[in-house]
Amino acid sequence: MTEPAREADGRLSTAIAIARLIGIMGIVYVHAWTGRTAEELAAVAFGWQAVLRTVLGEVFGRSAVPLLGMISGWLVVSTATRQDYGPFLLGKARTILLPMVLWNAIAILLVGAAATFGDLKAPTPTSIGWTLNELVPLVQANDVNVQMPFLRDLFVCMMLAPVLVRASTAWLALVALIAVVWSVSGVHVPLLLRPQILLFFTAGIAARRFGVAERVAGWSVALCALPFVVMIAPRLWTALLGNAFFDAHLHLMAAFDIMFRLASAVLFWRFAWALAGSNVADRLRGIERYGFLAFCDHLVLLWLFGPLIGLATGALGAGLYPAYLLVQPLLVLGVTIVLGRGLMALSPAVARVLSGGRLGRSASVTA
Q: Rg for the chain (alpha carbons), in Å?
């Protein structure tokens, strides 16, 4: 391999790591602690602090699922074509399914205990069925670790990956079309809780096949930002109107959501590519090792420590709350790094399991 080609591959790998970190930090804004109930949030939806929260969640959070899904699809091409099905699926169970189950168990134990024996207002086990679904979300999303259906659906996509990576372009397009129709229809079939993930996963495989990531990296930031800028205003307005508006225009909003998420992913991929060529690239890539751990632990941290910090800052509407809102992703990342290093010091094996294999070995980018 020539030196320019090696440098290009290195920058691409670094951009993937940075894009994943951006996506995971954006998810924290979507789940940020507010100290308010859903009813209270709806009542103050057009207050400036609630608008700020909505803007942060929509701008930084909506790119997360397509970015993470497409990156997983892009990366899986190598392993799915190189490994036999059994070892491939076992590896994905170890790096996706096992951490999901363990972190869900941790959430049930810690958050449930804090709600049962303390003042925390959080879901608690109400039945064996609820507990089992919370542990492995089979028929509906989690109530505590609400982000975990992504890993659940991603594992289902991994089960299909060896077929998808070998499929013709026409078959890939058909799978993507089925995922689009399924998403827009609103039909609930528990094979996938969020069928959009299959769409983005398939798009990632196609992007690898046709060199889309490299092409988009060559576009100007202004060009990548144009679709996002066009759609951000209506997206924010409909988000502020709340669930009642979404429910009244279910199919239209589902279709618009797919387009907006794709536009967000393109823009933030371009940002990630730019950062991969900057002097902070190595530092960001090193931090990304803790990204998967942050994805898994951030809601546990927000449930347990959000109200404690909120005692000092106040809930949404208080004077200090906006500052707290802005730094929540950084606080989660900082605590996660401390947690990861502590786990490494106490038990590298446990650190590897809970981080999906990201910790306890040299930094690398894996599907």
A: 20
Q: Are 204 and 115 in contact (CB under 8 A)?
A: no
Q: How confident is the model at residue 56, as a pLDDT? A: 95
CB 65 within 8 A of CB 337: no
In the DSSP assignment, the letter for residue 136 is S
* Cβ neighbours, 10 Å, residue 246: 15
- pTM equals 0.93
Cα torsion angle, 254, 259, 262, 264, sign: negative
- Residue 282 · residue 10 · CB < 8 Å: no
Q: Which residue type sits at 156?
A: V
How many CB atoms lie under 10 A from the CB of residue 41? 17
Q: What are the φ/ψ torsions at residue 78 (nearest 5 degrees)?
A: -65, -50
Q: What are phi and psi of 7, to 5 degrees?
A: -65, -40
Tell which residue, 84, 105, 153, has the closest CA to residue 300.
105
Q: Is 3 exposed, middle or buried (0-12, 13-18, 19+ CB in 10 A)?
A: exposed
Largest separation between any pair of C-alpha atoms in the chain: 62
Distance CA 24, CA 19 (A): 9
pLDDT digits (tens, 9 = 90+) for 43-52: 898 999 999 9
Query: CB burial class (10 A; 0-12, 13-18, 19+) of residue 215?
Result: exposed
